[in-house]
Amino acid sequence: MTLKTGLAPHYRRSESLRGMMFGVLLPLLMLLILPLLRQGFRPVVMVAITAGVCFLTEILFSLFARKEINSTDLSSLVTGTIIALLMPVNAPVWLPCVAGVFAIAVAKMPFGGTGHTPFNPAAAGVAFVTLSWPKLVFGYRNILDILPLPLLEDVAADTVLSPAAALKMGAIPAGNPIDMLFGQVAGPIGTTSIAVIAACLLFLLFRRSARWEIPTAFLASAALFAAIFPRIPGTRLESVVYELLAGSLVFAAVFMATEPTTAPKTGLGRTLYGALGGLITMLFRHFGMFEEGVVFAILLINTLEPALDRLTLKLITSGGRQHAK
Q1: Which pLDDT score is estimated for 97?
Q2: CB-based burial label for 234 (10 Å; 0-12, 13-18, 19+)
Q3: Which one, of 242, 251, 88, 250, lies nearest residue 173 by Cα?
Q4: pLDDT score recorded for residue 65
């Protein structure tokens, strides 16, 4: 039995890189609809500027390193969009831009660019600014504040406790699960509306831009951990519901863990990869210093991808040989 894996990025069907990136970018932009209606144009401006900074950083790096400039590659725009969607709407505009520069100039281009990165660039960028400016990354404006937000200037606003922060303190979040499903709670721009993210996942699965094993195992692992080790008073079911709906866990499971370059290439590998991602995310939530540690979990499972590929390919090959006998 012979198994072959192609050069990254790995695709199941014939499709251009540009087409695949557009297929990811489109649902990401769908996540701006509710923030646009509730917060005005500032979220759109933040996404546009951050994506532009990432695109420009990739061009400048290519010029400096005397590499070919791939102007049709939309991956830098995807990276910038993910970074901005993981920021509070009241964050200074420079914060996601710094994350974007780090993502492209440190975590992506030095390793060879698209298809060769060992780490998810967006996760690396967000992790960098989280460690550097945690109060800005986790300072959320009250969703009920209807005052208009400036497009570029810093926002002077009182911050409120997010559901993830409440869970970190061992308290039941103020918003009910229905509010959390439809983005009526404080949190990052693109991660609070779980219902919209679920619709985006269906779109990605339909286009085969993502594989079902990773997000399914990721969320199942996190749910199992939440049921066994609840952080809040109440039933185990309540623990599972609040843990899954709070923070950036679902967003990361759908848009970051499924990134094809850093994900395993076999079904079993993807399942183990996703399960480890959910487990490590919950460990960061319980024992980490921040209310949310999913980007650090993504970076950790990125390091395990080569080992998971070797292990699962060995198991599949051994199984094929035994079947042949």
Answers
A1: 98
A2: exposed
A3: 242
A4: 86
pLDDT of the residue at 14: 37
Q: Which tokens belong to 119? A: 């780490």
pLDDT at 11: 42
SS3 160: strand
Asked if residue 293 lies in contact with residue 284, where contact means CB atoms within 8 angstroms, the answer is yes
Burial (CB count <10 Å: 0-12, 13-18, 19+), residue 311: middle
Quick one: residue 43, left, alpha or beta (phi over 0 = left, psi -120 to 50 = alpha)? alpha
Residue 253 in contact with residue 278, Cβ under 8 Å? Answer: yes
- Which residue numbers in the chain have pLDDT < 70? 1-15, 71, 318-325
Degrees (nearest 5) of the Cα angle 191, 227, 190?
0
Burial class (CB in 10 A: 0-12, 13-18, 19+), 37: exposed
Q: What is the DSSP string of 233-275?
A: SS-HHHHHHHHHHSTTHHHHHHHTTT-TTTS-SSHHHHHHHHH
Give me the helices (H) in the chain, please.
17-30, 33-39, 42-64, 75-85, 94-105, 121-132, 134-137, 163-168, 177-181, 194-207, 213-228, 236-245, 249-255, 267-287, 294-324
Place of tokens 């559901």: 163
SS3 string of 122-159?
HHHHHHHHHHHCHHHHCCEECCCCCCCCCCCCCCCCCE
> Are 313 and 264 spatial neighbours (Cβ–Cβ below 8 Å)?
no
| Burial class of residue 146, CB neighbours in 10 A (0-12, 13-18, 19+) | exposed
